[in-house]
Every structure is written in structure tokens, then in C-alpha cells.
Write a structure and sequence with these properties.
By secondary structure, this protein is of the alpha+beta class. It is 46% helix and 13% strand. Strands 1-2-3-6 form a four-stranded antiparallel β-sheet. Strands 4-5 form a two-stranded antiparallel sheet.
Length: 239
């Protein structure tokens, strides 16, 4: 399969999984609703929404949400162009797929920001489920939707001396966030291998063969005439 098709298939699969899980959580979980994954306390599905970046980070500014949505769109456009360039330059498949994961994750969160506010009712904070509504009658305008998060892995909680607690790992994230993180970590961890493979894929230069000097139509000098031809001359090749 060509690299372009591999990247397209990867992006499509990530987007389908990301949007399917978000649609399911949005329409079947109450806000802050939670269930254990396989009965494990440290692995949970916990429904929250955020207006900002990955892992619940936000831009606390009047036009922060719109700015972030537009930035994501520009970033995805740049990533798609970069992928095309990488394929043209025959970069390693692993590196291209890593960039594809980042692109898929960014696209997944863009869909939330762009249209979820247009097609869903708000998720009440005090009970009740969101519903799919006619286009444009949802809880927010275009590019102002909230990103749906659901994966929560509070692996361990420590009691601090001051009475507070610290939980590892506390961020709540989604499939798109996981794809972005996986793509970035893959590039950081395997960058040496990626670029070594890239260098080995470039064919070595073939040294230029030594050519006989041009004579511009002049007869070759005696030193350039093969010895067997010199001996065949009438005077033995000697003056």
C-alpha cells in the first residue's frame, strides 16, 4: 500500500474511533458521570467537556475559543501539506505515520469545536443527558463547541503534608489527545532511527568515471598512442 493511502487510512480509523466514543459519551453520560473500566478504580470513563486545548487546558480570553479553533484549522492544513512533502521526499514510513497521528488528533478535536455546539444540546451540570438537535439549534455557535473528554486514569493519590492530595495521572482526555501524544512521543523516541533510515534510503553517489581528455580534433600526442600501435609505424615510432 502506498504511503499516502496508509496515512489516509490511519487518519480515518483514528477519527472514526474518536468521534464514536465522543458521540456515545455525550449522549449516554450525564455530565461528570463515571463508570469503572473493567471494574478498576484507576481506570475510568468520566464525562467532562473543555473549551480549550488537550487534557483540559484553556485559553482564558474573550476570543480564546475562536482563536484556538482557527489555529487548529491552520495547523491541520500545515500538517497535511507537510505530510505530502514527506511522502514526496520518501521519508521513513514510521515518521510519516507519526505525523499522521498528530494530524488525526488535531482533526478530531476540530470537529468538536466546529460543530458540536451546532448539533448537540448542552449537557446539564446537575443531571440530564444531551440530545442531538437540528443543525444550528445547539448550545453554541460555529467554532465555539466544547471538546468531549472521557478517559481518566487516577493511578495513585498521595496525601500531602499540608492536607491536600496529589493524583497521578489526573488529566481527563480523549482518543484525539492520545493520538497527538502518541505521534509526538514516537517522533521523539524514534527520531534517530527515522533519520538513519532516511539517510540509508538515499542512494550513494556513483563516482564519476575518468574520461579521456578532449583533443578538439587534433591528432593524439605520441604519449597517448598505445604502445602496440607505435611499434607498427614505419620508423618504429622513433624519429
Amino acid at each position: 500500500m502506498k504511503k499516502g493511502y496508509q496515512v489516509a487510512l490511519l487518519v480515518l480509523v483514528v477519527l472514526l474511533i474518536d468521534q464514536a466514543t465522543k458521540f456515545y459519551i455525550k449522549t449516554t453520560f450525564e455530565y461528570n458521570g463515571e463508570v469503572l473500566i473493567l471494574g478498576q478504580e484507576w481506570a475510568r470513563l468520566h464525562f467532562v467537556e473543555n473549551e480549550g486545548m488537550a487534557f483540559g487546558m484553556t485559553l482564558d480570553w474573550e476570543y480564546g475559543k475562536l482563536t484556538l479553533s482557527l489555529f487548529r484549522i491552520l495547523m491541520v492544513g500545515g500538517l497535511i501539506f507537510w505530510i505530502k512533502t514527506l511522502i514526496t521526499e520518501k521519508m521513513p514510513t514510521g515518521f510519516i505515520l507519526s505525523v499522521g497521528l498528530i494530524t488525526a488528533g488535531a482533526l478530531g478535536n476540530i470537529i468538536d469545536s466546529a460543530i458540536y455546539g451546532m448539533i448537540f444540546s448542552a449537557s446539564p451540570y446537575h443531571g440530564g443527558l444531551a440530545e442531538v438537535v437540528p443543525w444550528g439549534t445547539g448550545y453554541a455557535s460555529l467554532l465555539h463547541g466544547k471538546v468531549v473528554d472521557m478517559f481518566y486514569f487516577p493511578i495513585h493519590t498521595w496525601e500531602l503534608p499540608d492536607g491536600d492530595t496529589f493524583t497521578f495521572f489526573s488529566p481527563i482526555f480523549n482518543v484525539a489527545d492520545a493520538a497527538i501524544t502518541t505521534g509526538v512521543l514516537s517522533i521523539l523516541i524514534f527520531q534517530r532511527q527515522f533519520f538513519r533510515d532516511s539517510a540509508e534510503a538515499i542512494p550513494a553517489e556513483v563516482p564519476a568515471t575518468e574520461e579521456a581528455p578532449a583533443t578538439d580534433g587534433m591528432p593524439p600526442a605520441e604519449s597517448d598512442i598505445p604502445e602496440n600501435q607505435v611499434s607498427d609505424q614505419p620508423d618504429g615510432g622513433k624519429s
